[in-house]
Design brief:
Blueprint (H helix, E strand, L loop, with lengths): L5 E5 L5 E5 L2 E6 L2 E7 L3 E6 L7 H10 L2 E5 L5 E5 L7 H12 L1 H29 L6 H20 L3 H17 L25 H23 L18 H24 L8 E3 L5 E3 L1 H16 L1 E3 L6 E3 L3 H13 L13
Parallel strand pairs: 1-5, 5-6
Antiparallel strand pairs: 2-3, 3-4, 6-7, 8-9, 10-11
Helix pairs in contact: 3-4, 3-5, 3-7, 4-5, 6-7, 6-9
Length: 343
């Protein structure tokens, strides 16, 4: 398993990313605000407006350092991709399987089994950890209904049927997500998932972390030679990293959603950390974004036992582990793709 390196998050407006020797330099006007050696980085996510030098983009592409650009509100714009790693045979297998309804359906089922399993256990763990503050019966009912969708997913014969069962289970999960918010309910409440733009504080946090997680998953897929844009669950759409969205489904609840809930319930964020635009969009302000991204980096360094590999790895390496397992399945080394099953 590879070593987890750092991700540089650039949140200061109007800065420019340059390269001096083998060091990333964050500059504002003629002043150097930060210098970070490239060998310490596996990714750079820039929320700045001014861009990056061609020299830095070229070196990131050469070294396989994922460089992504987002708006200040956290919406993904694009990324810099270098030479594709791995061999073309692996990607040709990926494309053939994606075009084959039966084979792609099998992979999509396993991805959604992982998603529903993990969603269920986020709810179950909440009832264990906060039994005195939750309506345990209500949340356990939702967890049970999510679990009951798994056999339906396994039996689904078409992609449409599969997505129908997934949608019903997701509705059950989100119906009790607001119950898991235990602090500052006036500022933090969840009624439904909304995005583009997010319309409340919780959705603003979720959208930001989902964007960052998408960056990490896409980089992991590229590093093992897979094409992040060709998925099995999410169908092709110009500009959409469908395979990254596929693998993200397994990680949204146990990694992203739990992280957001922790930030709220430990009062790391407050209602004053958000701004509401004229169109109703809600975004995290710059100072709070820095705090949240620092906490995300800390979270990525926490270790777990990977349920399939039985190895202790950092949370930040789970996308890489799943990318490797998918590549091994496509090469014929595994009988099926093993989803990430957290508990």
């Amino acid at each position: 398993m590879r070593k987890l390196l750092n991700t540089l998050y650039v949140t200061t407006p109007d800065v420019y990313l340059g390269l001096e020797g083998e060091t990333v330099v964050v500059k504002k006007d003629d002043e150097s605000l930060l210098r970070v050696p490239l060998h310490n980085l596996e990714g750079i996510v820039s929320f700045a407006y001014s861009g990056a030098s061609p020299a830095l983009m070229g070196e990131c592409a050469k070294r396989g350092i994922a460089l992504s650009f987002c708006t200040m509100s956290g919406r993904f714009i694009g990324d810099v991709r270098g030479e594709t790693h791995g061999n073309v045979i692996l990607r040709r297998v990926q494309y053939r399987m994606a075009d084959d309804e039966t084979q792609s359906l099998g992979i999509a089922k396993n991805i959604l089994i992982g998603k529903l399993h993990n969603s269920r256990w986020v709810l179950e763990r909440a009832t264990r950890d906060h039994a005195d503050r939750l309506d345990v019966e209500r949340i356990k009912k939702a967890a049970r209904l999510v679990a009951e969708a798994i056999p339906k997913i396994q039996a689904a014969g078409t992609h449409g049927t599969l997505m129908g069962h997934e949608g019903e289970a997701a509705s059950q999960y989100f119906s009790v997500l607001d119950d898991l918010i235990l602090q500052n309910k006036e500022a933090f409440y969840f009624q439904e998932r909304n995005r583009r733009p997010p319309l409340d504080n919780v959705n603003a946090l979720l959208s930001l972390i989902y964007t960052i997680l998408s960056h990490d998953v896409s980089a992991a897929l590229s590093s093992v030679g897979l094409d992040p844009f060709v998925g099995f669950l999410h169908k092709d759409r110009p500009g959409r990293r469908s395979l990254a969205l596929d693998i993200m489904e397994e990680l949204r609840a146990p990694l992203a959603d739990r992280f957001v809930l922790t930030q709220i319930n430990t009062r790391q964020v407050d209602g004053d950390d958000f701004e509401k635009r004229e169109n109703g969009a809600v975004y995290l302000q710059n100072a709070a974004r820095k705090t949240v991204l620092a906490a995300w980096q800390t979270r990525k360094n926490e270790k777990i036992i990977h349920p399939f590999l039985k190895e202790k790895i950092e949370w930040g390496l789970v996308p890489h582990a799943q990318a490797l397992l998918l590549a091994r399945f496509l090469r014929g080394d595994l009988d099926e793709y093993p989803p990430f099953l957290w508990k």
